[in-house]
Design a protein that fits this description.
Helices cover 63% and strands 11% of the residues. The chain is built from five helices and three strands; from the N terminus they run ααβααββα. β2 and β3 form a beta hairpin. α2 crosses α5. The protein is globular. It holds the Pfam family HxlR. This is Helix-turn-helix transcriptional regulator. It comes from Streptomyces spectabilis.
Length: 124
């Protein structure tokens, strides 16, 4: 519960709190696909994320027990990130959502393009 939201109303409420936002699902997938990754590797696997945002999201995910952060005391410092068992189970739960996105991507993109075209036509 990284955001300190308080009591949840249902399981979906709890899950969305843990994985909500643009970057967390992408970070989960990158760690699933890449295994244990150093910060720079992880950043390359999540295109578009800023260093600040990646650090913030990883801290929240670590607090929630989704990501494990291993610090090696050496020069230069080495830090690796991996999914915990809880993170792996969350990633498995997100699989069907990813399939839904794959199956409906064309429709979703068409809707976004239509919305953008309407905004341009309005002069927005």
């Amino acid at each position: 519960m990284a955001k300190g939201k308080g009591p949840y109303h249902c399981g979906l409420d709890a899950a969305v709190d843990v994985v909500g936002g643009k970057w967390k699902p992408l970070i989960l997938w990158a760690l699933h696909a890449g295994g244990t990754l150093r910060f720079g590797e992880l950043r390359r696997h999540v295109p578009g994320v800023s260093e600040k945002m990646l650090i913030q999201q990883l801290r929240e995910m670590e607090t929630d027990g989704i990501v494990h952060r291993e610090v090696y005391r050496e020069v230069p410092p080495k830090v690796e990130y991996s999914l915990t068992d809880l993170g792996q189970s969350l990633n498995r739960a997100l699989g069907p959502l990813g399939l839904w996105g794959d199956e409906n991507m064309e429709h979703l993109v068409a809707n976004q393009e239509a919305k953008a075209a309407a905004a341009v036509a309005r002069g927005a």
